[in-house]
Amino acid sequence: MKKLLSKDEIREGVERLAAQLRAVYDGRPLTIVAILTGSLVLLADLIRQLDMPVRVALVGSRRPGDKTSSRRAVVIDASLLPALEGRDVLVIDDIFDTGHTLVEVIAQLAVHHPATIRSAVLLRKADRCEVAIEPDYAAFDIPDEFVVGYGLDYDDRYRNLPYVAALDPEELAGE
Ligand code: IMP
Ligand code: MG
Question: Does 164 map to a domain?
């Protein structure tokens, strides 16, 4: 396992992200939609640095394939969403990889007619994007490696690491 981002670097990155969001929304109420489960740590740290009124909703994504596959069926239970019509909505996720998850979530939220939908991620992987959008805000650009920690898991492990690390191919194949 190779450490990519230390606890302090992540804290600084989340602070930068929060400062951008405070400037963009300028005190206006914000509805944050966080994609489970990887974004939970970012969500907890980020919302404590925002100064506008914030509502939080959680949406699920499910991974059908292998443990490192990011192709997931995104499951949004609309009955769990707060009213989005006319609201400023910010979708947050742990990582932007191929982008399919974010595209799907944004499409499913758009039918509720929010005033704006923007997106913010902790990490954006280089050269992986397969969709026509990019996240509006990304705290860090990282190389194309499988990473864990600060909410990101490999087969439900490592989410609780306070730093972000890349797993070696042997660690991914092993066990
Ligand atoms: P995308 O749809 O390909 O952008 O994938 C996004 C989702 O895949 C994220 O929400 C993560 O849950 C998962 N994912 C993608 N890359 C990684 C990684 O390197 N480590 C852990 N999870 C990842
Ligand atoms: Mg995720």
Answer: no
Ligand 1 pocket, residue 147 CB under 6 Å: yes
Q: Could you tell me if the CB of 91 is within 6 A of ligand 1?
A: no
The CATH code of the domain that includes 137 is 3.40.50.2020
Q: Which of these, 149, 168, 148, lies nearest to 160 by C-alpha position?
A: 149
Residue from 45, 88, 94, 97 carrying the catalytic annotation: 97
Q: Is 113 left (phi over 0), alpha (psi -120 to 50) or beta?
A: left
The pTM of the full predicted model, rounded to 2 decimals, is 0.94
- The three-state secondary structure class of 55 is strand
Determine what percent of the chain is predicted with pLDDT higher than 90. 83
43 has a pLDDT exceeding 90: yes
Query: Does any ligand 1 atom lie closer than 6 A to the CB of residue 152?
Result: yes
